[in-house]
Amino acid sequence: MRTNDIAVAILSLVGLSAAFIDDTRNLKWSTLGGKKTRLIGHRGERAFVPEHTYASYWQAALEGADFIEPDLALTRDGQIVVSHNLWLGETTNIRDIPELQKYKRNITWPDSSGHVYELTNEYFIFDMTLEDIKKVRVMQSDVEYRPQIYNGLFGLLTFDEYLSTMRELTVKLGRPFGAIPELKMPKIYNMGRPYPRYFEDRAIITLSHYGLANITGNIDKSQHSDLILSPVAPLPAGSALGPAVWQCFDQDTSAYLANNTDVPVACTRRCHASLLHTQGLDAVAKYAKIVAPWKDFFVTGAEASLKAKGVTWNATEIAAMGGFIAPDQLVKEIHSRGMEVCPWTFYNSKESLSYLCQEKGIKPASRSGFCPKDKTEEFFYFFEQGADYMFVEDIVEANILRTFFANKLENKQNQRLDS
């Protein structure tokens, strides 16, 4: 039996012990469509398993995720692999592989938020070929409470392998799972390529190959004949694929994906003032179906959150555009424009909730003055607000809290019927 098979067998037993049962109650939630909030496995199930691995995706599915997220990167030879970071020194064993030491170097670059990264003695995916990448094994982040027993068992996947795994999960577990790929740093990955939207087009072609996207733009597939894509067998009768959603922090890329496929786009942002007033949302609504801001925008508020990140803005300009939207009104404003809401990221209960309002001297700007003390208060607040999706870690906990909230919702709705 292969190492991967043994590890997945162990994880299957762990997942089955969680005994996920889908909650099919017909309740009226505060989401845009009135359905229950959907849970997205953040990088799979990274609370327990090394992120973005075959095992991580299996574990997320076994625990009942509705969507499972891959982050996309591009190798030197143009193959799409799944990795959150552009570099591999933090979450893999690459430092222990002699033949890959030639790739170690220093680099400085600004991200889409203007934050400048300075990385030294690191190994960057865009410098390496797929053959190089396949020599690397993934390690769990060195975070307290995260098991280290699966370190080195799994390699990095390609986007093609991720999508093949999603089909496998759908067939074997008997339910569809949504795919929500994020294109990481497209401006960097497109440097030195044959044309400016090379990365985006290869991602589009791959998603289309698996039947999750229709190409609506003019993409020249002949320039991508070297893209490695596996044969796709028909699904068994009665099986159905889950939906797909694009996400990207780069708004030009987001608009390109929206204009060239029929797949909805999530506008993902953390440190931009332009998203957090009414005119900013009006602009986003022209191409996005989902808005995915950092969760603290809904709690502590835009001004404190942006200041904490060192982000500056033109106060006169923001005031002329109506000012920042109050955090407890942000979901309402997004929904009023026909867009869904997808805050991120909700961590394992053993980790910090990561809200500024928990820090001394920083008060939440919402009218309610709300600041969650624990994960239950946090989840119930976002369920009540009407979050349509939530990026979560420890999906078992998230599913339990969603069920508890559904019980509360059912009792309240039954009381209304009885009165």
UniProtKB/TrEMBL annotation:
InterPro entries: GP_PDE_dom, PLC-like_Pdiesterase_TIM-brl. GO terms for molecular function: glycerophosphodiester phosphodiesterase activity. One of its GO terms (biological process) is lipid metabolic process. It catalyses: a sn-glycero-3-phosphodiester + H2O = an alcohol + sn-glycerol 3-phosphate + H(+). The keyword Nucleotidyltransferase does not apply. Residues 37-378 form the GP-PDE domain. Keywords: Glycerol metabolism, Hydrolase, Signal. It holds the Pfam family GDPD. The keyword Signal applies. Residues 1-19 form the signal peptide. It comes from the Eukaryota. Its EC number is 3.1.4.46. SUPFAM superfamilies: PLC-like phosphodiesterases (SSF51695). It is an enzyme of class 3 (hydrolase). Belongs to the glycerophosphoryl diester phosphodiesterase family. PANTHER family: GLYCEROPHOSPHODIESTER PHOSPHODIESTERASE GDPD5-RELATED (PTHR43620:SF7), GLYCEROPHOSPHORYL DIESTER PHOSPHODIESTERASE (PTHR43620). This is glycerophosphodiester phosphodiesterase.
